[in-house]
Amino acid sequence: YDGHSDLHVGITDSKGVVYHYDQEGVHRAGSGWEQCISVPLVQPDMAELLLQWDQLLEEFSLEEAWLPHRYEEQQHNCFTFALAFVNRVRRGRGWEPLSKAQFSERFLLPHTRAASRYLTLLQELAHSDVYIVPLPQEQQ
To answer: Where is each MKRN2 opposite strand protein-like C-terminal domain found (predicted)?
Structure first.
């Protein structure tokens, strides 16, 4: 990622299949997201939610709101899809919905900042006379 193009957002089920929305509607992808930033949304102590997650995501993805003709690049897009699903889950737990700004600040920005720092370091090292070797097993 070069930092100059839009990012695409999706939500995974428990098996790692990514549900994402674009001008062609909702897609389910088992591959093609290997270069993504993974943002955990569910706490490990929410076992009952994890058991329902796949069903909630599948039902949500089939709603009319996510038909291809409803897609609008600026106002009804992949980010809208992800945020709407998160807010559906939050409402089901009795929590307040998040605004776009709150969702970005709380979930996305910390992870994209860390990835950006990592990529910057990686690019710097790639253009220097540094050789990186893995630590021996006993030092890890």
So the answer is: 1-125
Q: What is the pLDDT of residues 9-67, one digit of tens each?
A: 999 998 999 999 999 999 999 998 888 888 888 777 777 888 899 999 999 999 999 99
Q: On the CB side of 70, how many CA atoms lie within 13 Å of its CA?
A: 14
Structure letter (DSSP) for residue 72: B
Say what the pTM is. Answer: 0.79
Of 109, 112, 124, 128, nearest in space to 1 by CA: 112
> Sheet containing 10-12: which strands, arranged edge to edge?
10-12, 18-22, 25-29
Degrees to nearest 5, angle at CA 72 with 67 and 14: 55
Q: For residues 137 and 63, is the Cβ–Cβ distance under 8 A?
A: no
Rounded Cα distance between 110 and 74, Å, is 23
Q: What backbone phi and psi angles, to 5 degrees, belong to 18?
A: -95, 125
Helix (H) or strand (E) holding 124: helix 109-126
